[in-house]
Amino acid sequence: MFNENIKRSQDLKKILDTYGFTKNEMGIAIIDLNYSEPKIFGYNMDHFIYPASVYKIFVGAEVLRRIEIGDFSLDQIIEIKSPNDVDKDSKIFPGDTRNLLKEGDNVSIDYLLDLMLTRSDNTASNTLIDLVGRESITANIVHKYNWYGSEVTRKFLDRIKEDKDYRFSETTLSCVRHLVEFLCLVEKEKLISSFVSKKLKEYMLRFNRQGKKGLWLNDVYENYYGKGGWLETNLYRYNMLSLLKAIIKKGWAIIRWSNDVGVVRGKNSYYVIAVMSVNKSISPKSYFQIQKLAKVAYDFMESK
Q: How far apart (Å, rounded) are the C-alpha atoms in residues 190 and 138?
């Protein structure tokens, strides 16, 4: 969809190497919006990683597309059904005082979209995936823009609770190239339509960052909006035997996925950036330094 700027990809990789970021399994992609014909560059742009909550942007786009053509309406009331009601602890949403969704609740599609994209609510996401269907999301959003490999295959719940037809589906994957292209189209109001793009941006501008780490730099950027995704498997929370087996056989006790995509306006720069990473470690204190990477990328863009 976008032509790659090879020289800037090479320059960026040198910087990533210097700071040690390429020691991790990761990918980064940037689209510079300061040019009339934006070009993409980055590192490992086509490397597929589990996107965690980031793929909720694909869900939101399809819901809004269906609203625009009249299949649904923003004020239409939807009932929350089990097993979609997976969020059970309000502590996972620091700073958000809205009640957790539970089976039997009746809420509007607009409210579900807001919950999904502002506090990354999994119950809302599962409900909206059921509303429009995974195949519809894939066909009308993912495949429409040739983002093959980023098909929505799973809901946000345990496989055992999945619909039977999807219980053995492959894990949803994506890559940074697809994510920056998606948000570039949103920013230019060309993702499906102006209506779909504007509404997605409206929700994402209200994304609750409290208690989270991502690509935003509050005291540096002029403006930022986007969507993040995080997942952790921590074997220290299980029995000691499983922990020791994992350390001996796999070399890690904790695996963390840290992903984010956003649109940045800086003092001189204006760009879309996506980062996806997998961090495997024995130490619970080992994290992928995504905000440090955000500052490195920002300085690189400001210097250009």
A: 18
CA–CA dist 144, 273 (Å, integer): 21
Residue 83: cis peptide before it, omega within 30 degrees of 0: yes
Q: Distance between CA atoms of 57 and 259, rounded to whole angstroms?
A: 13
Q: Which residues pair with 49 in a beta bridge?
A: 174
In sequence order, the 6+-apart residues with CB closer than 8 A to the CB of 107 are: 77, 78, 80, 101
pTM of the entire structure?
0.95
Residue listed under structure tokens 């959003």: 141
Backbone angles phi, psi at 133, to 5 degrees: 90, 140
DSSP element (H, E) containing 56:
helix 56-68
CA distances from 184 to 103, 177, 261 (A): 36, 11, 10
Q: And the tokens for 302?
A: 């400001």
> What are the tokens at 162?
């999945």
Tens of pLDDT along 14-43? 999 999 999 999 999 999 999 888 899 999
